[in-house]
Amino acid sequence: MGSLRPAMLRVLRGFLAIAVALLASVAAAQYPSKPVRLLVPIPPGGGPDLVGRLIAARLTETLGQPVVVENRVGGNGVAAGEAVAKAVPDGYTLLVGMDSLLAINPHLYERMPFDPLSDLAPVASLVSNGFFLVVNPQLPVHNLAEFIEYAKRANPPLQYASGGNGSQHHLTMERLKGRAGIALAHIPYKGGAPATTATVSGEVAAMMSGTSTAPQIKAGRLRVLAYTGPKRSSLLPEVPTIAETYPDFEMTQWYGLFAPPGTPEAVLARLRAEVNRVLKEPGIRERLHNAGGVEAWITTPGEFAAAIRDDYAKYARLVREIGARID
Fold first, then answer.
1. Which distant-in-sequence residues (6+ apart) come within 8 Å of 303 by Cβ?
2. Given its phi and psi angles, is residue 95 left (phi above 0), alpha (psi -120 to 50 degrees) or beta?
3. Rounded distance, CA 9 to CA 42, Å?
4. Could you give the 3-state DSSP secondary structure of residue 94?
């Protein structure tokens, strides 16, 4: 009889595993059966919020349940990320996660209440875009080469604005400084909007701005010199990329959809399929473009995971080189 017990236990464990899998399959097939919360880590009106609300509105229609946007602000995305990381893994609490949370924050903060790489499950990539190198129109430069030459001669060094210490505006300009061999003085502001205002007013000479500043550029309040994406921006296709001068120079920002770890794969697959279907719609692509020049970014799960890992390593090097830290 004793020899039968291990065999019986194995059989019971097998039946239990099958039962759990069947229950998960049934739950996934019925998903969603109630409203879904979509946490956005910034206040209403910013890029991730606009993208989140646009995607949520379409998913409400395609999933047949309300997808409700909730702005959870704090800690440069940490508050929203922690709430999702510790939520019940059933697909009813999701996050619009930015690359700053996944790939930059772990290198800036001494401690984080969760590990963004292991405590958030990637669902689908959403959008991506680069940055414009812009200057105040009074600065006597009209292209990247002239800016670099002018910066090399400037004494004291030119000042540039960013959305904060360790922000992508900051890290992107620091990378350009290193590649071009120029000295610039960093002036951090509390967000991209005040940094843009400072550049428009002439309080600082330059900044790396998001594509949402295209209206200021077209109105002549900012002069654009270059773009940091892998190809020219569809918003301003006449503007050359920095990579045309410095090969392999590419700095972009992206948003993705994330869920708690342990969310059933069937639920993740359903969400991924619906999101990708929405992102392929011409009307959605146009509205994303109009909402700030962001472009739909559709990837496979493997491609998205690889992009996160690559950015994590890239920003680890950058943060280490410039010594940025947020306590």
1. 125
2. beta
3. 50
4. strand
DSSP 210-272: EGGGHHHHHTTSSEEEEE-SSS--SSSTTSPBGGGTSTT---EEEEEEEE-TT--HHHHHHHH
Distance CA(210)–CA(214), nearest Å, equals 8
In contact, 114 and 85? CB cutoff 8 Å: yes
CB 96 within 8 A of CB 40: yes
Tens-digit pLDDT profile for residues 214-271 = 899 999 999 999 999 999 998 999 999 999 999 989 999 999 999 999 999 999 999 9
Q: What is the biggest distance separating any 2 CA atoms in the chain, rounded to whole angstroms?
A: 91
As a whole number of angstroms, the distance between CA 96 and CA 103 comes to: 14
* Residue showing tokens 């010199």: 225
- Say how many Å lie between the first and final Cα of the chain, rounded: 62
Q: Is the pLDDT of residue 24 over 90?
A: no
Write the CATH number of the domain with boundaries 35-128+252-322: 3.40.190.150
Q: 149 — phi, psi (to 5°)?
A: -65, -40
Q: What tokens appear for 90 in the block?
A: 């059933």
Neighbours of 109 (CB within 10 A): 16
Domain with CATH 3.40.190.10 in the chain: 130-244
Closest CA to 196 of 131, 149, 261: 131
Cβ atoms of residues 277 and 285 within 8 Å: no
Q: Is the pLDDT of residue 15 over 60?
A: no
Domain with CATH 3.40.190.150 in the chain: 35-128+252-322
- Structural class in CATH, domain 130-244: alpha beta
Is the N-terminal amide bond of 32 cis, ω within 30° of 0? Answer: yes
Report cis status (omega within 30 of 0) of the bond before 282.
Answer: no
Residue 40 pLDDT grade (very low, low, confident, very high; cuts 50, 70, 90): very high
Q: Is the pLDDT of residue 143 over 60?
A: yes
Q: Which two tokens stand for residue 68?
A: 């409700």
Copy the structure tokens of residue 169.
Answer: 């505006």
